[in-house]
Specification:
CATH superfamily: Electron Transport, Fmn-binding Protein, Chain A
Oligomer: single chain
CATH topology: Pnp Oxidase, Chain A
Radius of gyration: 17 Å
Mean pLDDT: 77
CATH class: Mainly Beta
Helix content: 10-25%
Structural class: alpha+beta
């Protein structure tokens, strides 16, 4: 039982959460269908100043559900440089932003994933399809992790940087549980 408790009760640090949200990972977005069921889809995402963004077509169920019900959740799974695997989930208000992000506008999720020299070509190809960005303003954060079965050194001597908008508490800063947070 002690091993199960160690694995299932382990909580990531705020730095681990920030590191995973900054990575080029695929997220799962959940929006609420009219019948109360959840629609799930994989998306490229961006975490910026405490908000989460993904681009899609205004014709998708994700965009329609977000516009009609104003709610979405996002789940991201990834590995931290500490060797631990994390799951980070946020849920909150969803706002559909018309038009493609541009200079001075909301951030662009594809820019996180694509080399700058290829971005214009991707925008020309996909810009006609992905005509909206959905912004999620989290009201609740949940995160959990499994302990690393082996200890390995961090990849960078500088360590990850704290991302603005990630939930923090004094117990988190001390390496304690992150658990459930309400913004």
């Amino acid at each position: 039982m002690a091993d199960a408790e160690r694995v299932y009760r382990a909580r990531p640090t705020p730095d681990e959460v920030a590191e995973v949200l900054a990575k080029r990972l695929v997220a799962t977005v959940g929006t609420l269908n009219e019948d109360g069921s959840i629609h799930l889809a994989f998306v490229l995402f961006l975490h910026d100043q405490g908000r989460l963004y993904f681009e899609t077509s205004s014709l998708t169920r994700n965009a329609g559900n977000a516009a009609r019900r104003g709610w979405a959740s996002m789940l991201v799974q990834g590995g931290a440089s500490t060797g631990r695997s994390l799951m980070v989930r946020a849920e909150g208000t969803a706002t559909v932003r018309q038009g493609r992000p541009g200079p001075g506008a909301q951030p662009s999720p594809p820019a996180k994933y694509i080399k700058p020299e290829a971005l214009d070509g991707i925008d020309r190809a996909w810009g006609r399809l992905d005509d909206v960005a959905v912004e999620i303003t989290p009201r609740r954060w949940r995160s959990w992790t499994g302990s690393s079965s082996t200890t390995r050194p961090a990849r960078s001597s500088q360590g990850p940087t704290r991302t603005p908008g990630c939930p923090t508490t004094s117990s988190q800063a001390a390496g304690g549980p992150v658990g459930e947070q309400t913004a």
